[in-house]
């Protein structure tokens, strides 16, 4: 059964309002009718089973039959701070990292950045996150931040006990060398743009407690490095199986 998405503000004690593209998909693409049972997620971890009361291309009203906290979400909340690659590479990062289990994505501007996307790209990335959340059976919608300067991220770092940066010049230290503590519930992972992080940027991150780690012996594209490091970290925390 497909999952549909409706934000918490459209969900009351007994009813769910589904609008816009989601309602169009229900009415025109899947041709659902009143009386049919569907599942809805709110992007904050809750999954609802409900019966359609009214359906149209603009609005679908669903009466809640049951609800639960969906159990498939990672216990480790990982934020990916990623230099924006050229083209639609960031769309791939958002899609695949959402499927794997990322909690938040921060598109970064760094010294070597060559891509500076506008509002339309940001909206597209957020729509991709919604689609990937539904496709992968998740119930938490990752936050996709606005384009952020690397220097501004330092303000957020106090919220994380585990702070890592994938760096192609780190030859010795890998994730295997990083212990995970039981009380570590949040982690942040940095991945550079196509030109990588500069030595000065790595030095500044290290001063803030960020640990450089290798992502393997081969030089990876930004998109690949993001997916690989996230998967390795969630696997290490026991959140991939």
What can you see in these coordinates?
It is a single chain. The protein has helices spanning 20-29, 89-100, 119-135, 199-207, 222-236, and strands spanning 3-5, 15-19, 37-41, 46-55, 59-69, 77-83, 104-109, 143-144, 148-149, 162-166, 186-191, 211-213. With 241 residues, it is α/β, with parallel strands linked by helices. α2 (89-100) links the parallel β6 and β7 (104-109). α2 packs parallel to α5 (222-236). It is elongated and about 60 Å long. The two termini are 22 Å apart. The mean pLDDT is 93.
Number of domains: 2
Nearest-angstrom radius of gyration?
20 Å
CATH class of the largest domain: Alpha Beta
Silhouette: elongated
Overall pLDDT: 93
Q: Looking at this structure, what is the CATH superfamily of the largest domain?
A: SPOUT methyltransferase, trefoil knot domain
Residues in helices, as a percent range: 25-40%
CATH architecture of the largest domain: 3-Layer(aba) Sandwich
């Amino acid at each position: 059964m497909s999952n549909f998405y409706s934000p918490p503000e459209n969900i009351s004690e007994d009813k769910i309002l589904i609008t816009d593209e989601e309602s169009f998909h229900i009415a025109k693409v899947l041709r659902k009718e009143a009386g049919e049972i569907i599942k809805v997620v709110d992007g904050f971890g809750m999954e609802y089973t409900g019966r359609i009361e009214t359906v149209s291309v603009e609005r679908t009203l669903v009466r809640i039959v049951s609800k639960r906290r969906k159990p498939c979400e990672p216990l480790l909340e990982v934020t990916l701070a990623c230099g924006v690659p050229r083209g639609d590479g960031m769309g791939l990062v958002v899609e695949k990292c959402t499927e794997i289990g990322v909690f938040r994505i921060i598109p970064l501007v760094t010294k070597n950045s060559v891509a500076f996307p506008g509002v339309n790209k940001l909206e597209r990335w957020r729509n991709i996150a919604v689609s990937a959340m539904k496709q992968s059976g998740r119930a938490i919608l990752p936050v996709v931040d606005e384009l952020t300067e690397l220097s501004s991220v330092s303000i957020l770092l106090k919220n994380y006990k585990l702070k890592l940066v994938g760096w192609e010049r780190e030859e010795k230290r890998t994730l295997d060398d990083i212990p995970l503590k039981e009380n570590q519930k949040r982690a942040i992972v940095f991945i550079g743009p196509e030109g990588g992080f500069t030595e000065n940027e790595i030095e500044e991150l290290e001063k803030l407690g960020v640990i450089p780690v290798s992502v393997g012996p081969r030089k990876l594209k930004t998109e690949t490095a993001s997916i690989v490091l996230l998967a390795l970290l969630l696997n290490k925390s026991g959140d991939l199986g």
